[in-house]
Design goal:
It comes from Tenggerimyces flavus. This protein is of the alpha+beta class. The chain has one helix spanning about 5-30, and strands spanning about 45-50, 50-55, 65-70, 75, 80-85, 95-100, 105, 115-120. The strands form 2 sheets. Strands 2-1-4-7 form a 4-stranded antiparallel beta sheet, with no helix packed on it. Strands 3-8-5-6 form a 4-stranded antiparallel beta sheet, with no helix packed on it.
């Protein structure tokens, strides 16, 4: 059984394929992982449902804050409520909103896409 050129080429190709699969497996799993964690004392908002997409930790909340992005899921571990609004100006004009009290989570907010947030209920 010697080391014929055909056998060496087959072994080299098999080794290269194994290396590619290993590298793909390592990088693919981290690229697909979604960070659904939220630190204690924080409000975390995701642009996608089920805590996917871009995560924003502790977005500014005042009387009314335009987020600049659409929020679709959230975890409220802060000590104040988070009131999500469909419109940009937090005004109740026939649009509905969703409220998360401290300790509450929502993998899918009850609004199609929240564009603004306030820290109180109107």
């Amino acid at each position: 059984m010697g080391n014929s050129p055909g056998r060496l080429r087959t072994l080299a190709l098999a080794g290269a394929a194994g290396l590619v699969l290993t590298i793909t497996g390592l990088t693919g799993s981290t690229a697909l992982a979604s960070d659904s964690s939220c630190p204690a004392g924080s409000l975390c908002v995701w642009e996608g449902a089920n805590y996917t997409g871009t995560k924003h930790v502790d977005p500014e909340r005042s009387e009314c804050t335009y987020l600049g992005y659409g929020a679709q899921s959230a975890k409220n571990y802060s000590d104040t409520l988070a009131n999500f609004w469909v419109g940009e100006d937090c005004i109740f004009s026939g649009t509905w909103n969703d409220v998360l009290r401290p300790g509450e989570e929502s993998p899918r907010l009850d609004v199609p896409t929240a564009w603004s947030i306030s820290s109180y209920i109107y």
